[in-house]
């Protein structure tokens, strides 16, 4: 059996399923299963390389790979035995565990050893001999300056062309396909390369029309160009005779000549819909930095950014006229500058050209300006930042403001979506639903990237399960646009990079108030003497990013009378001790507080009267000391608290009973707290509680009987509470409950009686394991609106699609 055939078949899918099942259910073999999953996924780049190389391996190499595939086939049989073994057969399980460890070592040796390097070398060597692509690419760089954006390495270009060709000539069922990517990523270059491809030209018999649509297109003229090309009257598009059938032209012609129309630089869905002619044998390729609905653009290839070696080649071509670093150049400095471009072809080309023939001191200055998010010269500002800014100017005012807010967060860090949503709600006068819609719009326009949990998108899913990332060039653009004007008058006062101290520009202007609405500080450890007095009469959001074990909260918080959202995030290796917590006594208008990786000080009634706080989030914090029940009166401290999030706080053992007296609480999320062993017996006092999440609390063994008194509860999540033994009978009293997630609760084998559960009149969806699903299905007969979903381990086999 060939190696790529093996991984493309059902065996790979079955093997991964078995390994995920073992990881979930077998304690002895869990570690080996997890490591095997990681190792197999590390093989995917090799598999894809073979797939898209189109080469045939030597008999020796194929034989080696076939032997390895047999090892994995044996692993599949072993995995089945592990799952079939009873949990009480300790001796047999120990034997199977040792065999799993042996299999893990065999696979790990292959992944980490030299064989994969030999394999890739063979692939590159044979492809180079067959096509000579790299040499042709270098020649094309020398001859065609604009084509330099397309030099993305043999693998990058081949992959893009292969994906594009598959959509265009390999799928007759797709009428409209797309190339999607961030501005400056080489989308147009890739489209041009596809159109030049001999196989594509032959397929369409050279009937290919390439049109640039742009932001303000003459739609009627473009329609005429396309219609004239289709009907053989190409002069129509250049005359006043603009007769074209009205509508979206979904004509049902007979079989005509194959035709490809490329619509480049498309900005508007309404314009695109007018330019699509749905006619058999006619195909449209849409090139855009925006993502359009699947019912309009049927399939899309997202252009990938360049790898490190590809980035270096393109940068060196622009800066030195060659594809490698010259011997006399400062290699360390060049690598630092290339790293700031983060694989974006346009940035590499523009910045490289801006530095060409400049002295080393100029390069060093340029690096510092890039680190601060500033343009290095007029050419860099005009050709890169202003070109990227076109995407921003096209947004409506509120969405543009939300994009600019992203510059408030550190580079190369995931931004918790909960933080963004809270901030946008507070300062842009929108609700959570509109804020989330703006986030999706920015993602569809390639201005940020969503990093999602597998279950995100379900009703009641929490925002802190999603993170946001952004390309550094887009972040630099947000900083560039935000830092215009006098420092005291800027709407956002931002530190672009982590520094040991506050910017000197800020210190020089402390004689006047700063009118910023958002203030973002990014430092290391800060002591009391490191701060200077600043006034912020209009500040509504303060973001404190730092990396240290101790942190003195800024005294100028006292001079932020309108502060509504405070975000404190420590990026250090251990929880930081916060000092000067007394500044919280003056935050009468604070509505949202996010604390991450810090020691939460002991909350005492007189020192922390946060009367208007509505949302409190503590993530990766040390919190147990702050919940001293002898001095803690939560309803007095947080009289209007509506949402409490405690996530990954491993020292939390028990919640204080006074939390059940916070009558305003509507959402309580205690997740990934591995030492939490008990919930307050008076939990039922929270009559307004609608959402209760107890996700991944493995030491939690029981739920209090008073849970049945939560008359407003709509969503209950107890998933991955692996030691939770049963559901209390009183759970049947939750008449408002709409959804319950109890996946991976392996100890719950029996449910309360059907009579007790029959009162769950509002229940519409239950997510559970297969072992207990049949008991819920009995209820489906009496409750026709109930849907029982059997949970499966989430994993991706997208790479099998080729």
From TrEMBL:
Domain RPW8: 1-149
Top-level division of the source organism's lineage: Eukaryota
Molecular function GO terms recorded: ADP binding; ATP binding
Alphabetical list of SUPFAM superfamilies matching this protein: L domain-like, P-loop containing nucleoside triphosphate hydrolases
Membrane spanning residue stretches: none
Key words, A-Z: ATP-binding, Leucine-rich repeat, Nucleotide-binding, Plant defense, Repeat
Pfam families from the UniProt entry: LRR_14, NB-ARC, RPW8
InterPro entries: Apaf_helical, LRR_dom_sf, LRR_R13L4/SHOC2-like, NB-ARC, P-loop_NTPase, Powdery_mildew-R_dom, WH-like_DNA-bd_sf
GO biological process: defense response
Keyword flag Repeat: yes
Family the UniProt entry places it in: Belongs to the disease resistance NB-LRR family.
Protein name: Disease resistance protein
